[in-house]
Amino acid sequence: MFTLPSLPYDYNALEPIIDAQTVELHYSKHHQGYVNKLNELIADTGFKDRELEEIIKTADGPIFNNASQIWNHTFYRNCLQSPQENNQPTWSLLEAINANRWSFEKFKEVMTASAVGNFWSGRTWLVKNPDGTLEIINTSNAWSPLTLDKKPLLTVDVWEHAYYLKYQNRRVEYVTNRWNIVNRDFVEKELEA
Ligand SMILES: [Fe+2]
């Protein structure tokens, strides 16, 4: 049985960038819903005693979709924190970004454009490849870099339920504002893990 991981901040912690109602619904309805559904789907299968990442890498169909969405939502939440002024990356993250021949501003510009142009319900990710290089990729639906042998470092959630209550169709504004609530310490920890 999987349980919903606790939310690392209050529902209003991301205000005014992401409103409390969106955070609450996203956590208590969407994220909880994926947990409930996965438990129901695996109850009588060989997946019931497996780790979440193992299910993601071996299952398909609804079991994959719900397992992957649990993981994606937990990762997404951990990428965020209360708004920070001048939210610059820490030195080692900046070094990794610069190694890709991006300035920090250029990196934000490329990732923002990728998220704005992500046509599907999905996510835009900063990932680390097995050779250590960084890359920005888009995924759709429940897919994630875990199935592509890429290590996720940061994600931008562009499923509409992540922002529609406050921003409606203004995805550019949502993606742009969201840089102020990136948890740079979490991203750095993932980079070095
Ligand atoms: Fe979601």
Write the layout of secondary structure elements.
Elements: H1 20-42, H2 52-58, H3 61-78, H4 91-99, H5 104-116, E1 122-128, E2 134-140, E3 151-157, H6 164-167, H7 171-177, H8 184-192
Antiparallel strand pairs: 1-2, 1-3
The protein binds fe (ii) ion.
Which features would summarize this protein structure in a list?
2 domains, three-stranded antiparallel beta sheet, about 190 residues, mainly alpha, 8 helices, globular, 3 strands, Helix Hairpins, binds fe (ii) ion, minor pseudopilin epsh fold
Can you offer a commentary on this structure?
The chain folds into two domains: 20-78, Orthogonal Bundle (Helix Hairpins), CATH 1.10.287.990; 91-192, 3-Layer(bab) Sandwich (minor pseudopilin epsh fold). It contains eight helices and three strands, in the order αααααβββααα. It has helices at 20-42, 52-58, 61-78, 91-99, 104-116, 164-167, 171-177, 184-192; strands at residues 122-128, 134-140, 151-157. A three-stranded antiparallel beta sheet has the order 2-1-3. A hairpin with a 5-residue loop joins strand 1 (122-128) and strand 2 (134-140). Helix 1 runs antiparallel to helix 3 (61-78), helix 2 (52-58) crosses helix 3 (61-78) and helix 5 (104-116) packs antiparallel against helix 7. The protein is globular and about 50 Å long. It binds fe (ii) ion. The site of fe (ii) ion has 7 residues, from helix 1.
